[in-house]
Design goal:
By secondary structure, this protein is an alpha+beta fold. The chain is built from four helices and eight strands, in the order E-E-H-H-E-E-E-H-E-H-E-E. The chain has two domains: 98 residues, Gcn5-related N-acetyltransferase (GNAT) (Aminopeptidase, 3-Layer(aba) Sandwich), CATH 3.40.630.30; 46 residues. Helix content is 28%, strand content 42%. The chain is globular.
């Protein structure tokens, strides 16, 4: 999908260094290169990148499980946030979702900005997972019907 100078396409191994750079700047406990390589090899996983001017500026990792989309990770480079890129990646995931009826994800309880984005995007809290993040922080489980 290409819209307003942003190209969204499937991630390749060539994108990993840029993705890892965004990951490290965005999280205190970033995913490793080995984890991304494992996800790229998973049949049920799809990883998309958002490209602008030849650079990776965001990515989404999700699984399609029967009729549900499960977001594993969604990140936009800090300098590119609040420009609709995450919304475009979600829309592309849904477009590729082949009949999915719901989207699920977990978000840190302490991440007010991410929670506000997901709520604005139509997600609702439907549960919690205590100690989900490194055994210390609660995750809010969110769902969106599509």
């Amino acid at each position: 999908m290409k819209e307003a100078g942003i190209l969204i396409r499937e991630m390749t191994h060539h994108d990993l260094e840029e993705v890892l750079a965004i990951e490290r700047l965005s999280f205190t406990e970033p995913f490793s290169k080995a984890l991304f390589e494992s996800e790229l090899a998973q049949e049920k996983a799809t990883l998309l990148v958002a490209i602008c001017g030849g650079d990776v500026i965001g990515y989404i990792d999700y699984w399609l499980v029967i009729d549900e989309l499960h977001v594993i990770n969604l990140v936009v480079d800090q300098a590119e946030r609040r420009k609709g890129i995450a919304s475009r990646m979600i829309a592309e995931m849904v477009r590729r979702g082949k009949g999915a009826t719901s989207i699920f994800l977990e978000v840190r309880e302490s991440s007010a900005g991410a929670r506000a984005f997901y709520e604005k995007s139509g997600f609702v809290a439907c549960g919690t997972r205590k100690g989900y993040y490194a055994g210390r922080e609660t995750a809010i489980v969110m769902e969106k019907k599509i």
